[in-house]
Write a structure and sequence with these properties.
The complex is a heterodimer of chains A (about 110) and B (about 110).
Chain A lengths: L3 E3 L2 E5 L4 E7 L4 E9 L5 E8 L4 E4 L2 E6 L4 E6 L8 E9 L2 E6 L3 E6 L1
Chain B lengths: L4 E3 L2 E4 L5 E6 L6 E7 L6 E7 L2 E5 L6 E5 L5 E5 L8 E8 L7 E2 L3 E5 L1
Parallel strand pairs in B: 2-11
Antiparallel strand pairs in B: 1-3, 3-8, 4-5, 4-9, 5-6, 7-8, 9-10, 9-11
Chain lengths: ~110, ~110
């Protein structure tokens, strides 16, 4: 079945690295995504990775994919207070490109 | 760069009324998706269109319908509104050749 799970909350100090984790169950996932949502705002696509890749880096963001364990992580280097938001992991599967979202991880960056 | 446009941004309706939400995808994007996000929840897929044809359907109530027009914009029609329909409604668009789905700012619907 389709299920995406994330931890609910993460708190880090400004300047530290943040690692947000996600697990998914559908082995036919095509793409896996990370979206950022600030309060009352829309969903900002941060990065996405094709399911046959292991890693993708984009400036301060590093995505790691472990297909065997169905585990996806997002590492934010040098976390800033402006990174405080909810981060959603999502997958799309072969039969449709609809997104299945996790419940979101609320990241709080302390000064 | 052009983004997904949604209108209206805010909408207040009474129970049993109807509402129409509009979505204008990024230019040259041929696929449109609609999602519903309740308070404190993750977005839930409603329906999608590819080249003006319905491509997939999720947990969309029978009271809702949608279509994609020849200029690729899409409309979500909601009838017999209920209190539980109060939510953020997002439209997203993508190009068939890319996995990236870009979301609009959303329409916040409040049903009183």
């Amino acid at each position: 079945g389709e299920d995406v799970e994330q931890s609910l909350f993460l708190s880090v100090r400004e300047g530290d690295s943040s690692v947000i984790n996600c697990t998914y169950t559908d082995s036919s996932s095509t793409y896996l995504y990370w979206y950022k949502q600030e309060p009352g705002a829309g969903l900002q696509l941060l990065t996405y990775i094709f399911s046959n890749m292991d890693m993708k880096q984009d400036q301060r963001l590093t995505v790691l994919l472990n297909k065997k364990d169905k585990h996806l992580s997002l590492r934010i280097a040098d976390t800033q207070t402006g990174d405080s938001a909810i981060y959603f992991c999502a997958e799309s599967i072969d039969s449709s490109y609809k997104l299945i979202f996790g419940s979101g991880t609320r990241l709080l960056v302390r000064p | 760069a052009a983004g997904v446009i949604q209108s209206p941004r805010h909408l207040i309706k009474e129970k049993r009324e109807t509402a129409t939400l509009k979505c204008y995808p990024i230019p040259r994007h041929d696929t449109v998706y609609w999602y519903q996000q309740g308070p404190g929840q993750d977005p839930q897929f409603l329906i999608s269109f590819y080249e003006k044809m319905q491509s997939d359907k999720g947990s969309i109530p029978d009271r809702f319908s949608a279509q994609q027009f020849s200029d690729y914009h899409s409309e979500l029609n909601m009838s017999s509104l209920e209190l539980g329909d109060s939510a953020l409604y997002f439209c997203a668009s993508s190009a068939a050749t890319s996995g990236a789905q870009y979301f609009g700012p959303g329409t916040r619907l409040l049903v009183l």
